[in-house]
Specification:
The complex is a heterodimer of chains A (113) and B (113). Helix content of chain A is 0%, strand content 53%. In chain A, strands 2, 4, 5, 9, 10 and 11 form a six-stranded mixed β-sheet that branches. Chain B is mainly beta and 113 residues long. Classes of the chains: A mainly beta (113), B mainly beta (113). At the A-B interface, strand 5, strand 9 and strand 10 of A face strand 4 and strand 5 of B.
């Protein structure tokens, strides 16, 4: 089983719709989860992090974490064409003594005008 | 203030040659990460430095890869006897602490002919 899995997409949504991006992870002890956005040809940039079960909202973005089911999701409300990018989820393993990040392969989102 | 910088931005080399990639983190950031991203893939963790602690080298794919961080600041990733499969974008990121936001540099695009 891969440490983190994401659907590669592309996920296409119309402008104004809600985009839902999902990620599952294998390390049950992980505590820290992150969503990064990467535009084509650019470097990743952090959108949100979440540490606790439940929802965390920041503007049009909501991160959802369910540790029991080992998944984390990102909702983008009122999707805009400028949201078209690859979204990478990442987590920090629970192994003590290291704070490395494990990234998924990313989901490509296309918001259609 | 300046962000993370990397040099060179592009590197073309012949198979079997050694290459050195440089990363200048944000001033004061104690954590520094190296990742590799192959075309259309997610980020592959390579190595992580935190302050004066021993680096986490668990992601280095072979003994041809090594990295050092001098004076807790600049880092160099060295690939010896390059192979064509080493062709990728090498990204460096720094953060103020172990679970703080990572800021990525623009990357070095390495092409091994």
């Amino acid at each position: 089983q891969k440490e983190v899995e994401q659907n590669s997409g592309p996920l296409s949504v119309p402008e104004g719709a809600i985009a839902s991006l999902n990620c599952t992870y294998s390390d049950r002890g992980s505590q820290s989860f992150f969503w990064y956005r990467q535009y084509s040809g650019k470097s990743p940039e952090l959108i949100m992090f979440i540490y606790s079960n439940g929802d965390k909202e920041d503007g049009r973005f909501t991160a959802q974490l369910n540790k029991a089911s080992q998944y984390v999701s990102l909702l983008i409300r009122d999707s805009q064409p400028s949201d078209s990018a690859t979204y990478l989820c990442a987590f920090q393993p629970s192994t003590s003594g290291t704070y490395k990040y494990i990234f998924g392969t990313g989901t490509r989102l296309k918001v259609l005008a | 203030g300046a962000g993370v910088s990397q040099s060179p931005s592009n590197k073309v080399t012949e198979k079997g040659k050694d290459v050195e990639l440089r990363c200048d983190p944000i001033s004061g950031h104690t954590a520094l990460y190296w990742y590799r991203q192959s075309l259309g893939q997610g980020l592959e963790f390579l190595i992580y430095f935190q302050g004066n602690s021993a680096p986490d080298k668990s992601g280095l794919p072979s003994d041809r890869f090594s990295a050092e961080r001098t004076g807790g600041s600049v880092s160099t990733l060295t690939i010896q006897r390059t192979q064509q499969e080493d062709s990728a974008v090498y990204l460096c990121a720094s953060s103020a602490g172990t679970s703080e936001t990572q800021y990525f540099g623009p990357g070095t695009r390495l092409l091994v002919l």
